[in-house]
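Researcher: Quick one. two chains, 1053 residues in total.
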Amino acid sequence: MEGLYAFCVGLLTACGIFLALRGRTFPVVVGLTLLSYGVNLFLFASGRLKLNSAAVLGQSAQHSDPLPQALVLTAIVIGFAMTAFVVILAMRARADLGNDHVDGRLPEAPKPRLARRSGGQ
Amino acid sequence: MNDLIWIPLLPLLGTLVPLFASRFSRSACAFLTAGFPALALVLVLQLAPQVFDGETVRQSFGWIPQLGLELAFRLDGLALLFTLLILGIGLLVVLYARYYLSENDSMGKFYAYLILFMFAMLGVVMSDNLIQLWMFWELTSISSFLLISFWGHKTEARKGARIALTITGAGGLALLAGVLLIGNVVGSYSLHDVLASGDLIREHTVYPVILILVLLGAFTKSAQFPFHFWPPHAMAAPTPVSAYLHSATMVKAGIFLMARMYPVLSGTELWFLIVSMTGLATLLLGAYVALFKHDLKGLLAYSTVSHLGLITLLLGMGTDMAAVAALFHIINHATFKASLFMAAGIIDHESGSRDMRQLNGLWKYMPYTATLAMVAAAAMAGVPLLNGFLSKEMFFAETLHQDSLGSLSWMVPVFATLGTVFSVAYSLRFIHDVFFNGEPVNLPKTPHEPPRYMRVPVEILVALCLLVGIMPTYMIGDLLYAASAATLQGQVPEYSLSIWHGFNFPLLMSVVALAGGAVVYINRKELFQFQAQFPENDPKLVFEAVIQLIHRQISRVMELAENGSLQRYSYMMLSLAMVMMAEPLLDLNATAGHRPQIPVDAISITGAVLLAIGALATVIWNRQRMVALVALSVVGLIVSLMFAKFSAPDLALTQLAVEVVTVILLMLALFFLPQTTPKESSPKRVARDLGIAAIIGGVIGTISYALMTRPLDSISTFFLENSKTGGGGTNVVNVILVDFRGFDTLGEITVLGIAALGIFKLIARMRLYMPASDGDGRPWSQDSHPLMLSVVSQSLLPLALLVSAYIFLRGHNMPGGGFIAGLITSVAIIQQYIAHGVDWIKARMKLDYQLMIGSGITIAALTGLGSWAFGRPFLTSWFDHFHLPLVGEFELASAMLFDLGVFLTVVGATMLILANLGKLTTSERPVLKEHD
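Model:
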């Protein structure tokens, strides 16, 4: 079971990172959401996997580790807030800049190495 | 305890005075400005007898003793010598500047900079801690920048100031490195300890590095070759500034540093070679170039460079007598050079020119000033009966005594004499060209004597030149002795300050120098012609070119690393993270640990397959955004099921609720964003990203697997044991959130609130194009609020709220709590928005979400503060059990109040985000008023 779980964590992470490396805002947000699933599962698993036990006292002889659960619970909520913030930022960027590229400007067509004049103002 | 700290502190306070006093008359402003430094001078003079008795007055205030940081001042002979010069000449400059500055110059600003600079210099010479010394050192660079660029409307002033700041600032950084190394070797930054560790430092392997770094600092400040080009460009400053910076202060700071570190760094072959040879080169170069300068101040600037070279040469020789001679020349140079600069300023001020090709025959117009200037110039040339003669004699005597260059040692006195020949020649030029040599040529003004009091500072300084020259022992014997003792940190050699030592070799050298100088000056025409053959290269242009070159190169490097592409930054960051994560894994021998593993069942496999399909579908169809979103929600659902399966009901509930909210949010966002993503990544880019994603995923999966298969020693036992007894709840997760780690939760809901408010701000004034149809061109449905949905959701609302209340109340003992209840409530309200539209809700539900966030955080914080009222630490919880008829036994806990705060914040934040975003689609678009 642990191997299967680890596979899921790895897959979510990989998919999340691939999407986070895209050039448009929406796939990046989706990628970050996937990545946060992976991270939450990873953190949760640091308390080890347990079947049929409870974090509530008196229900079962076996207890699951409550600490990672508490941490992940708040992480989920904060993660939502951050996702929301990024999404709205992306919308605002599109409204103000006219495109939804993460750099705020559309990539230029590849040109032969051009030396930008810099220096002395 | 003594008042040492007041000596630098008074000028610091005094910086503010001119800013206020500038509204009064010019004289009043100058008078008031002089007040604090004068008071500081009185303090110094009060302490002087103690210092003359050989005592070192010290005062320190601890700051961070662990780091060796303190505020520490000392006044020994060396510091006394410099404080007297800084304050004395500083006060004369204040008086002089009152007449020099024109009506157009901001007097208050000028005086403020000047006194600030004075403060910085006092700090340098009085510091008893090397770090502190360095700090003041940099402050002199900064304040001198302000002074040199005082006439900022002139290009020369700006450029000159920039060169000075760059050179001295860069030298300061080298000095800092040197100081840190010294601190490392000695184990203390206190000057007291450092001065006592001379042998330790000299024998240490890093001694050459320390020496070179410290000397870089000193040489840049004191304009030693090859940094000799900055003082001439700093001449664009008002003349009072030049008179101050280039006689007694700024350029002497480097000399001071060498004298200060003399007991620690000197006495080695390396010291001798670097310091004396640099000094000699500077002495010759400065004296030679000075002769050819047509600008009066340019001549004086190069002359200053040359005299600084002389002092450096003396310090470099490493004999005790040479150090005494160096200190003596510091005093003498400060007095005659300050008076010469002031005289030059008077000539400039009253005739409108500084060009010696125009200035001729001024004797007729200003005989009194001319006399003063001539005496000072004679002191510079080393004419007997003046102070310059005495120190120059000592200098000659020392050059004869040294033998460090072996059989080439004879070269030093010869070159020293040669330098002095040129020194005499340019002094002669200063006198003859300006005051005699025909009539003025095309002067803008008819020259005349300056105002009475403008001459006073010059008179005082020239009188000092004479008095020291005639009665050296009486005038400065004690001061020189104390300064020598402090510099050498030991026995002061026998020396005699009399003006007549009989017919000896140094006297012969002086005579040769004077005669040679006259010969050189008389034959100057040939020399000028010879010099004119060399191409003139302006160090200013060279400096600018070097800076431009550095700038261009750096820009090129920066463009490689930082080209404005977020994708590239993310890629680099992830690559680095990958390397750092993977590296420790290489040492892990077995992936799997010994912890028994749970067998795989069919349900788990189904879940994993669904999750994999969802995740892969999200990636594969990521350019069809709606499809990707649906696939994403599948993943979210499976994740919440995974939490449920592995005994985390709280997490499952939270994940489920957040999933709903997130998907609604993303759908709303998608309404305004393009429905598809253009295909723009090159195949190479895709392959690269797939590669790094796969590797990181693999690494993370491996870490997770390795972690899960190893036994756990958790601190959670503590929470499990104390949850019921200490926190009063059986749901340990909730008790951790609201009690054990309540402070964390308080921070987290605050972040949530801030994020929501930030989003609110972003949404306001957002001008977005609202598409009239979906991505495929189909118009939106006319029936945006279907009747069925409205009716069902309306009847669901009370039910949902009831569930929410139930989840909230039982949270302390059963899965649930403020977070989950808040999310459920939000979902219920959002459903109403979806079913009925914003307008319909607005008329019926008047909820101020911002107020909700605010009150939520306030309630949580107040609950925490409440425990203070009972003398307990922040956020200590209280609970008790009560019995009510019909209801039965129930529990009340202060943690519940805290959870209420969490609940309100979560509802407020979620709704603030979603409701405002939703409003964008309607006529209810939030409009921020101008004043927001």
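Confidence is low (pLDDT under 50) at residues 928-932 of chain B.
Researcher: Thanks, that's what I needed.
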